[in-house]
Amino acid sequence: MPGVIALNKPYGVxxxxxxxxAHPTLASLLDVPEYYPAGRLDTDSEGLLLLxxxxxxxxxxxxxxxxxxxxxxxxxxGDVGADALQALARGVTxxxxxxxxxxxxxxxxxxxxxxxxxVPPIRVRKTVPDCWIELTIHEGKNRQxxxxxxxxxxxxxxLIRVAAAGVNLFDLGLAPxxxxxxxxxxxxxxxxxxxxxxx
Length: 199
Prior knowledge:
Elements: E1 4-9, E2 36-37, E3 46-52, H1 55-62, E4 70-77, H2 82-90, E5 103-106, H3 109-112, E6 130-137, H4 144-151, E7 156-164, E8 167-168, H5 169-172, E9 179-182, H6 188-198
Parallel strand pairs: 3-7
Antiparallel strand pairs: 1-3, 1-9, 2-3, 4-6, 4-7, 5-6, 7-8
């Protein structure tokens, strides 16, 4: 039966099930035969990872042509100002491609206060401030968010995917390394597809 799993992937975990000599993999967190990631998270990124055992759902969640949005919280070096936020929102040219327009805003300190600590902690430089921004995109190219923030002068220190395809990590209450099964109607992108198929 088709299904979807939501996982809060910790930092340092490789987004595959096969063994790796240098990093723990998804197999260290869950044993779910026939489930595969719908999209990927870099080893040094954290947060929401959706997995499914249904190929069409995997494509619909991960492929940009279906328009599934992904929202990230990025802790970046420096004090991000209006010009950098506007550049990210318009789209930036990264050499091999230009990013599509995005939604972006600076996060208030109280919004990130409840985040779990990263293990290991980020590198902190006392002479360089940092802040958090929220960035919503639908493309998801390789290391796209990190490349975008670096392009506007604010290298990324920590990156957490907090939402994807209408599923919000904080609504699920998942601690790092934990997961839960989702019903199709809890994934708005798939629920809309199912309704169309039955009409």
